[in-house]
Write a structure and sequence with these properties.
Elements: H1 2-8, E1 17-19, H2 35-49, E2 55-57, H3 63-67, E3 75-78, E4 84-88, H4 93-111, H5 131-141, H6 143-152
Parallel strand pairs: 1-2
Antiparallel strand pairs: 3-4
Helix pairs in contact: 5-6
């Protein structure tokens, strides 16, 4: 997502990372109990994963996360009027880039005075499922996170 944010920033498209909560708390990154702790976790995430986009912190009670659907890895795209034009319950760079390309094309078509009317679309996208990388991420939180996740799906 960092590379995509950099690719489109010259087109006046901003990108942020909203840090909501620990999806899989463990010994190293436990359940969040303070904003100071949340700030430290977000800083670690930024360094560990190389997040170059601005990271905004949700309230400790997750108010923003709940308002926008509560899924663990969502992506939203808003137009300049603040209207959501894309919502995905999983962040997948291919899907997001496809949407960005489409909406940039819509912008160009409008500039060319093409008369456009909005309509809703629903589609099924696909993401890479790398279980090994997922478990490596769980291990960053600690063995407790791995054990609890494994138990939930056994």
């Amino acid at each position: 997502m960092n590379a995509m944010a950099e690719k489109y920033e010259d087109r006046n498209i901003g990108s942020i990372f909203l840090y909501t909560h620990e999806a899989h708390p463990g010994e190293n990154y436990p359940h969040l109990t303070s904003m100071a702790q949340k700030t430290r976790h977000a800083y670690d995430l930024q360094n560990l994963l190389g997040v170059s986009r601005p990271i905004l912190l949700d309230a400790l009670d997750g108010a923003c996360h709940r308002a926008y659907g509560s899924m663990p890895n969502m992506t939203w795209i808003f137009n300049r009027a603040g209207i959501p034009v894309y919502k995905s319950d999983w962040s997948d760079a291919n899907s997001v880039e496809n949407a960005l390309s489409y909406f940039l094309d819509v912008s160009e078509r409008r500039k060319a005075k093409e008369r456009l009317a909005p309509f809703r679309v629903e589609r099924l996208d696909y993401r890479n499922q790398d279980k090994e990388a997922f478990y490596i991420g769980l291990m960053r939180s600690g063995q407790k996170a791995v054990d609890e996740f494994s138990k939930a799906f056994s």
